[in-house]
Amino acid sequence: MYALILPFHSDVERLDKTLALLQEQGRTWQIEQVLLCHNGPMWSEEKRQQITQKMPAGVELYHTDDKGIGAGYKLGIKNAKSPYCVLSASDLPFGFTDIQSLEKIFSQSGQRPELAIGSKAHPASRIAGYGLKRRVVSMGFWFLRALMLGWKTPKDSQGTILIQTELAQKMIRWSEYDNYFFSVELISLAQKAGAKAVELPVVLENHEGESSVSLLGDSLKLAKALWTFSRRLHRMRVSDLK
């Protein structure tokens, strides 16, 4: 059912616990594919062997010279064969609670939404160590998105993304971002194509430290990216995305 896409750059050690957890519980959550997507300059042969020796059966390793988490996500989406993609992080910050929430929707309605987001902003989410600065940054980023992309934009664009593979593969043909802004781009393009974004409650047990985001400097960068992207998005026709 699910293709779990885990981009990584230099955080090889963080994969150890993730791979162990997947080996222990992955089948329980219908994870058919695990795609480790290395993005950036090619690693050493020693590093590559460190990873491959620890990879359980069914885990696939991919590489792109393009740097950025968005580049990793796109690489995984292109190679996904399961019906749904789960775009997460190398340390699986929410465990499998995002998939659990999506499966709960399926058990109640018999359908899975085309697009869902494991959202820290969901009122039922349990987030440990989520400090005031992170909340301020998140709300500020949401306000900028809502102002430029419309008020239906999800409260959290940087959580996990659970999306039908066919839809994701169509949307990445229109993607121009390889960095973290790719998440905003993918969600917005999917919404433009008619998908409704459903935010899912998640559990985050251990959140490391406070945000390093600069409220002023990074907000200006985000505003610039949002302005450029919003102009392109508004010019696009829904028929272009089909």
Report the CATH architecture. Alpha-Beta Complex
CATH-defined superfamily: Spore Coat Polysaccharide Biosynthesis Protein SpsA, Chain A
Mean pLDDT: 88
Secondary-structure element order, as H and E? EHEHEHEHEEHEHHEEH
Report the top-level CATH class: Alpha Beta
Can you give the helix content as a percent range? 40-55%
Low-confidence stretches: 209-213
Count up the domains.
Answer: 1
Question: Over all CA atoms, what is the radius of gyration?
Answer: 17 Å
Alpha-beta classification: alpha/beta
Percent in strands: 15-25%
Sheet bearing the most strands, described?
A: 7 strands, mixed
For the termini, the CA-CA separation is 23 Å
CATH fold node name: Spore Coat Polysaccharide Biosynthesis Protein SpsA, Chain A
Give the overall shape, derived from the CA principal axes: globular
User: In DSSP terms, counting alpha (H) and pi (I) runs of 4 or more, how many helices?
Assistant: 8
Instruction: Provide the spatial order of strands within the biggest beta sheet.
Output: 3-2-1-4-7-5-8
Please write out the topology:
Blueprint: E1 2-8, H1 15-25, E2 31-39, H2 45-52, E3 59-64, H3 69-79, E4 84-87, H4 97-109, E5 115-119, E6 126-127, H5 132-149, E7 160-164, H6 165-171, H7 182-192, E8 197-201, E9 203-204, H8 217-235
Parallel strand pairs: 1-2, 1-4, 2-3, 5-8, 6-9
Antiparallel strand pairs: 4-7, 5-7
